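Exam revision sheet. Question 4 asks you to relate a sequence to its structure. Input first:
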Amino acid sequence: MSDRVALDTITLAQERTQLFRNLVDGKIPKRVPIGAVRFSSEFAIQYAGKDLAKEQWDTTMLEEILDKVCQDFASDTLPLSSIRFPSYYKILGAKTFVMGSSGFLQHPEVHGLEPEEYDEFIASPYDCIMEKVIPRLYTELDTNPAQKSIVLAKAFKAFYDETGNMGKIFGKLSEKHGYAPPLFTGATEAPFDMVADLIRGFKGVTSDLRRCPDKLAAACEAITPMMVKKGVPKNPSKYGSTFIPLHMAPYIRPKDFEKYYWPTFKKLVEDMAAAGQPSTLFVEHDWMRYIDYLYELPENTRMMFEFGDPKIVKEKLGKKHIITGFYPLTLLKTGTKEQCIDKAKELIDILAPGGKYYFGFDKSIITVDSVNIENLQAVVEYVAENAHY
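Answer key, structure tokens:
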């Protein structure tokens, strides 16, 4: 890289960083930043015309593949996400994430705790997870202590190899293209969602809400400190955030949400904010009946909406919190280029006034066939060149 190019990318990164800092500081950025445009590694591999079932197994070879996404799609932050890799799941004999024939890791409906074991979990969630839940969900750990240690060491080695490789690649691409720092510097889960995802499973939790709701509530309270600890990074920053995908709330009754979901979720977000780390919420499905609850969260909580009425969200939340999302990926698949750009204009007109908004889609882009590539490029290019407050 020439000195001139290096200087230009440094300046570009500084300008892009300032866009997001202005959002947090309550200032109006000079244009609407593009921040919630995220392509999975699976998308990148498909987009590069490579074999998905093969390329995921050697992350050292992904730089060129991932760089093609950076070259072809406008964004102010690195437009890539790599959350899971098959190597360590295979070593662990995972039931939680299983490689499908299409080359995608699938998340089956599983659970690691039986309802009669709630008391044990409530008394010591960490011990219960380590001694009962994990060996049930990861079959290679259901063995004697010596063999378990060997398997765990191999899995951790694979995990740190994969994440280390991706960290190096992401760092190179961020420097090369002059991106702002990552918007997410950690991840955790709402306590209720943690219990629902892997501890009791979706079916188990919905049953527990009827049969033993008090034990479910106590389990959420017991695991909250662990979720806070997981969500606060080594160096908290008001300009970073911890990603929290919100799963179960739209599927339970409002009275159950208020009593069993909301209290520990609110405490999680508040405790992390008190430690200096804001949250980015992926507000999955339709949360419109819970909008007033979301307002109560600490100022400058980031909220990425999948569905809902952007006008109401802007009116109720837009002065206190930072909003993104709403742009439907389905339109990129089915609409004309003009329709797709018009939708971007519509959302920007609604959400940008007054600041506290950055452009993003309603979900991450996982497969090449889920969007029309030309429409996608047209939308992000339009936003990059024309979106002002």
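Marking note for examiners. The chain has a mean pLDDT of 94.
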